[in-house]
Each structure stands twice: as C-alpha cells, then as structure tokens.
Amino acid sequence: MEQILAFWVHPRxxxxxxxxxxxxxxxxxxxxxxxxxxxxxxxxxxxxxGQHIDPGVPHSYADIRQWILQEGDKAAVFFKDMAYHPFxxxxxxxxxxxxxxxTFLIREPEKTILSHAVMNPDVTRDEIGYELEYKLFEKIxxxxxxxxxxxxxxxxxxxPEGITRAYCEAVxxxxxxxxxxxxxxxxxxxDSWKEWHVDAAESSGIQKNMETFDFGLDDRxxxxxxxxxxxxxxxxxxxxxxxx
Length: 244
Prior knowledge:
The protein is of the alpha/beta class and 244 residues long. 46% of the residues lie in helices and 11% in strands. The protein has 12 helices and 5 strands. It has a 5-stranded parallel beta sheet with strand order 2-3-1-4-5, sandwiched between helices. The longest helix has 18 residues, at 221-238. It is globular, with a radius of gyration of 17 Å.
C-alpha cells in the first residue's frame, strides 16, 4: 500500500494552487475533489453553479471510498477535497480515517467568503466550510492520536517555498523546488469545476493577492453572518498550523 495523502480544505482557500504543486511533482496520482459528486449530485444537498461533474465517476460514498483505496494500492495518491463533502460519512468511518495521511489548509475567512460569494451568491453556511473542517480535524486527531498537519493560505502565499517545504517535512516526503512553478493553463482534472479554478489556471505559481472585490461583508448581511459564525473555528485551527 502506498501513501494516500488527503488535503482537507474549505472552498476558495487557494487549495487548487497547492494541488497543482502535487501535479507538478509527478510522484503522486492526483484526485481532484473526488467527494464533490457525493454532495452535489448523489445526495443533492444544494445547487451550486458551475458544476460539470462527469457522470462516469463514482458518486456514492462507498464507491468513492473504494476508488481512492484502489488507487492507493497502485501508487501514492494526493487528493484535495472540501471537508464538508463527505463529512457525514467519514466522521463515522474510523477505518478509512486510519488509512489516510490527513493534512489541512485554512485561509482568512473574510477573503474566502467574499471570493465564494463572487462565484455563488447563495452560498450556504455549511459550504463556507470552517465548522466541519474543524470537526473533522478534531475527529482525526482523536482516532489517530496525532495532530494533523495544517497550513495557512496567507502564509503559503507569502512564502510558497518555506511553507511547502515545511509541509513536505511534516508529512515525510521530499521537497521538490521545481514543483512550485508551472506553465499557465487548465488541466483535465479541473474540468468538473473549471469556472471555479480560473485564477489557478492563469497562474504560474502560488501568488499573493490575485483576487480583488467590489463589495464587502457588510454589503451583504448574510455574508457577515457566515463570517461571524465561522470565525471561531478558523481561529481554533489557526493555532494548530505548521510554520516554517
């Protein structure tokens, strides 16, 4: 069995940029948000604009789980996904939790929420993501007896090499400096959510402050409510981050 490296995130956390680093490495099979069909198609939790999910990929929790494990039997796997997508299932699946190497990413909530609202003005509280990411983090720590590796997006943007190097050291893999840059362009793995990954596709590396906004939290009261609700979970996770 090879390493299965799970990268649990919330939306709009520059996680796709970090995923691209693993595509550039070449030593991991990269699965992009494998549990998103579960949440948005199989269980139909909410409607979300910009999804083009392949009907041929696994959609149920059991089938997605099996797919990930089968890939991990053949090669090292890195998958990035939102913690809320499989939360109701994985929180009860200690066996699967123990098979994975769990890592996390967080980003300051105001920027995340504004970025999300640009793409989906009707974003729900669960889709903001911090609460269930925190609860999954705590569950994994309880089941494995280890504190999962967690990095902060703002620190990653400020020092891509230093934070990526610290991440690699924490999970026991070599740091590959050449993986921090690439030729801009969409990649096939992003086709299901390609409108959501325009910034990542246009980038040539992890860059700071690629987004600007023409509205704020106070211009849309429900966004301010989302921010106030999720901020405590972000702050708790931030205290557990890995630094260089």
